[in-house]
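Justification of computing resources. Each target in the renewal requires a structure prediction run like the one illustrated here; the chain below, 107 residues long, is used simply to show the kind of job we budget for.
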Amino acid sequence: MRIETDNPAGETLDQVVMHFEPNRRVEFLSHGGGITLQTRVTFQALSENRTEIKLQLEFVGVFSRIAGFAIEPAIERGSRQFFEDLNQACERQPMMAVLRESGDHSM
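Resulting structure tokens:
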């Protein structure tokens, strides 16, 4: 799969899903700019309405590990922002469903 990043450079990432377990785990390799990153995302239900998401990142290959020291903070910030945005979107969904059921379309 090819992903266009949302940054000024407009870099593209190639990603390959290595493992997928519905509702539990996904692992994939991302390659872009000469850097390869292995990512594991796990999901664990905490309740009917809450899910814990854990993210593990590992640079693969010598160049990726060396370059990773320089770019790791940026990747961490981007990942953190992504999950904060995802959390906000997920929290809005139940409210939007309630509003739709009540006939209120203000959102």
